[in-house]
Amino acid sequence: MIAKIANWFDERVGWKVIWEAIFLRKIPKVNWFYTLGSATLFTAVNQAVTGILLTIYYVPTPDHAYDSVQYITTQIPMGWLIRGLHHWGASAMVVLTVLHMLRVILLGAYKYPREVTWFTGVFLLLVVIGFGFTGYLLPWDQKAYWGSTVGTQIAGAAPVIGDWILRVMRGGPDLSAVTLARFFGVHIWVLPASLILLVAIHMYLIIKIGISAVPKKEELA
Amino acid sequence: MNDGKQLDRRSFLGLITWFIGGSIGAGYSIPAIAYIVGPAARKEEDQAWLRLGAASKVELGTPTLFKIKVERQTGWITNEKELSVYVLTENGRDFVAMSNICTHLGCRVRWIASQDQFFCPCHNAAFSKNGEVMDGPPPRPLNQYQVKEEDGQLFVLGG
User: Fold this and answer.
1) Whole-number Å distance between alpha carbons of A14 and A8
2) What is the domain extent for residue A115?
3) pLDDT tens digits, residue range A170-180?
4) Secondary structure of residue B78 in the 3-state scheme
């Protein structure tokens, strides 16, 4: 029955070719370090799902941000779980992204013909860091406020254009309601859009070119 | 594994993958549903006896209006709401407390002494002094509160 429905759709949509290209593609014999990219993608999905759920109650204004976060954590059923997954998932995503990058560096997977995959990966790392930086402010507690004060101050230390960067980041000279709103906007619209685009290219290239094999000693000679 | 269909390694791993994937999916969906419907599924906030005022203020046979301020918690915001209650007594001992909210579409009704009826300005509805529908579109009588008298003070049960 299921096979019949699957065939009915395949005849009209052609999904089996895509399914096979993604999940049944041939790969060289590799080790568990090659799963770090998939693990990172999984944390990205986790952040998307829990992040969307958090926006149902979170309000990004100075009078409501802190209270709405407390409301999620203490009053909403499973709110502590959703927020906890988003909070810890964020750290996991940064750690896994860096480990994935180290694997690609140490096993030389960035080399020809995979340079473009590497370029998109570099931008993906920046996007992940941007997520962490903007998300840090959103709970609007003391740690968030002073963390973002210091973080934007560091950006302000850049020579010549530093002060201008700081003002653009904060939306003015001080950390304010404007800062909270723009960090929120960047966190839930700008960065996710960039992430989806970059991940799509990254994944397309991985599937198109195929993953690299573990380097062999003879190849060094 | 004695029957004709043997499970090979490949299909076994495939099955395990689907099982783990399904578990993760359920692990997200079930808490997500609880999280989304949570505030809607919550029971009406604990009702409390709210003090209206002195029972002696109620005139015999005439609905008398009491207005009190009630604190209401909506989400993480506490705001003050005004509650208006019409209290009627025929003998000074048994009290009826009625809401001033029209049962049609929620407009506020008021007592018109000269016509001996409650009047709702939105669709010209009329209620008797006991709250029964006399005219207009309302589907049922005015809502009533549980009411009690203690030491000369009137209380209604509400939230």
Assistant:
1) 10
2) 30-212
3) 999 999 999 99
4) strand
Asked if B31 has any chain A CB less than 8 Å from its own CB, the reply is: yes
Contact B36 A64 (CB under 8 A): no
B107-135 confidence digits (pLDDT tens): 999 999 898 899 999 999 999 988 899 98
The nearest alpha carbon in chain A to B24 belongs to A46
* Tokens coding B125: 């509805």
Note whether residue A13 is domain-resident: no
**Per-residue pLDDT tens over the stretch B21-46:** 999 999 999 999 999 999 888 766 66
A183 is a domain residue: yes
For B40, nearest residue in chain A (alpha carbons): A76
- Quick one: how far is CA A93 from the chain centroid? 7
Spatial CA neighbour of A90 closest among A36, A144, A136:
A136
- Give the ipTM: 0.89
Residues 128-147 of B with CB under 8 A from A: none
Picking from B18, B35, B77 by the largest number of A CB atoms within 10 A of its own CB, the best residue to mutate is B35
Q: Using 50, 70 and 90 to split pLDDT, how confident is the model at B4?
A: low
Count of domains for chain A: 1
Residue B60, phi then psi, degrees to nearest 5: -65, 130
Tell me, yes or no, if B26 comes closer than 8 A to chain A by beta carbon. no
C-alpha dihedral (B3, B8, B14, B16), degrees to nearest 10: 70
